[in-house]
């Protein structure tokens, strides 16, 4: 079959790429097997292909951000979420302690400050810590088409070293952007980052965004199309950390990366892509993941700005 063959040859041609470093800040990431490599492609019409380490589970980390944003947008409405989280690239590190000047909103939902604000918005104003976590895990399970779970070890390790996220949480609470205890919102956000996924899960989740919120396999509507439009817009401008502009020009697929080495792409009306390879470049994006997407964009003509 042409698609699986293509995916296999793509992985093979990039196996010799050994640049980059596995994330070091917690033991569960520092001890990841650096040579793991998997890719999956899901069409909006429900075809799913994968190659390499496509059964390996890894923590979703920052790739959770577009989905908690999607959940908050559907639970609270676009206007209510826009009031608390901006839509512009920050031009700063993902965990920077900074907010928009007058509104005190985080710049966008793809940086940690914005992800914490987004997590607080899940479900409704009176929801508690566990309800918000359940909402997130349930949505992710629905999108993946299987029951997903939180990796306790990663969760505990992140909680032990959460000072930066706690600082962000306290800063947000001092400005009324979150109203629960910073500890509870940070714990929820870290739980959301600790959900275990495979590249096949990521590809299907991406295809769900790409299809305007209709699940590519079940055919069920999971998210409103206005929500997926907004999520993919923010992913385009802010999804790849400081490399977002370069990414848009060179790859041209709305995408989000995570510090465990996962990468999710979503090309509107067409496909979702999932890649996993733990070595990261200086921006924090998977080295091979970036290269896989760049090649696919070129070989399959997926660049969103390509006219013909
Ligand atoms: N859990 C990590 C954090 O909050 C996620 C970071 C990432 O994937 N960039 O710092």
Features:
single chain, 308 residues, alpha+beta, 2 domains, two-stranded antiparallel sheet, 7 strands, binds glutamine, Glutaminase
Shape: globular
**Ions, cofactors and other bound molecules:** glutamine
| Largest beta-sheet details | 5 strands, antiparallel
Enter the CATH topology name of the largest domain.
Beta-lactamase
- Main β-sheet, spatial strand arrangement: 2-1-7-6-5
Protein name: Glutaminase
EC number: 3.5.1.2
Subunit structure: Homotetramer.
Keywords: Acetylation, Hydrolase
What is the compact description of this entry?
The chain has helices at residues 2-14, 27-30, 65-76, 78-84, 112-121, 129-144, 152-160, 163-174, 182-193, 199-210, 225-238, 244-250, 287-299; strands spanning 38-43, 48-52, 58-59, 196-197, 255-257, 262-267, 271-276. It is an alpha+beta fold and 308 residues long. Its EC number is 3.5.1.2.
Structural description of this entry:
- A hairpin with a 3-residue loop joins strand 6 (262-267) and strand 7.
- The chain has two domains: 2-61 and 196-299, DD-peptidase/beta-lactamase superfamily (Beta-lactamase, 3-Layer(aba) Sandwich), CATH 3.40.710; 64-193, 3-Layer(aba) Sandwich (Beta-lactamase).
- It is α+β, with helices and mostly antiparallel strands.
- The longest helix is centred in the middle third of the chain and has 16 residues, at 129-144.
- The chain has 13 helices and seven strands.
- The strands form two sheets. It has a five-stranded antiparallel beta sheet. The protein has a two-stranded antiparallel sheet with strand order 3-4.
- It binds glutamine.
- Glutamine binds at residues 61-62, 94-95, 112, 158, 165, 193, 258-259, 284.
- This is Glutaminase.
- GO terms for molecular function: glutaminase activity.
């Amino acid at each position: 079959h042409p698609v699986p063959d293509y995916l296999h040859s793509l992985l093979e041609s990039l196996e010799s790429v050994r640049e980059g470093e596995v994330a070091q800040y917690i033991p569960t990431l520092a001890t990841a097997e650096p040579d793991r490599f998997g890719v999956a492609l899901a069409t909006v019409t429900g075809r799913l292909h994968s190659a390499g380490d496509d059964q390996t589970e890894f923590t979703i980390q920052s790739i959770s951000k577009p989905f908690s944003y999607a959940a908050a947008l559907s639970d609270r409405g676009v206007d209510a979420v826009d009031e608390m989280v901006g839509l512009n690239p920050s031009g700063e590190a993902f965990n920077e302690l900074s907010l928009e000047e007058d509104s005190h909103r985080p710049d966008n939902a793809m940086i940690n400050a914005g992800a914490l604000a987004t997590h607080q918005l899940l479900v409704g104003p009176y929801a508690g810590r566990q309800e918000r976590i359940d909402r997130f895990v349930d949505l992710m399970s629905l999108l993946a088409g299987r029951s997903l779970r939180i990796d306790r070890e990663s969760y505990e390790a992140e909680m032990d070293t959460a000072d930066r996220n706690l600082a962000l949480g306290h800063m947000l609470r001092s400005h009324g952007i979150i109203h629960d205890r910073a500890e509870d919102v940070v714990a929820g956000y870290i739980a959301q980052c600790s959900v275990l996924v495979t590249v096949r899960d990521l590809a299907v989740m991406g295809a769900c965004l790409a299809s305007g919120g209709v699940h590519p396999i079940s055919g069920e509507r999971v998210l409103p199309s206005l929500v997926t439009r907004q999520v993919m817009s923010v992913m385009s401008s802010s999804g790849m950390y400081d490399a977002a502009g370069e990414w848009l020009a060179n790859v041209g697929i709305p995408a989000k990366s995570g510090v465990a080495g996962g990468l999710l792409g979503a090309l509107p009306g067409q496909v979702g892509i999932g890649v996993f390879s733990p070595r990261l470049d200086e921006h924090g994006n998977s080295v091979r993941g970036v290269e896989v997407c760049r090649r696919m964009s070129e070989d399959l003509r997926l660049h969103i700005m390509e006219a013909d």
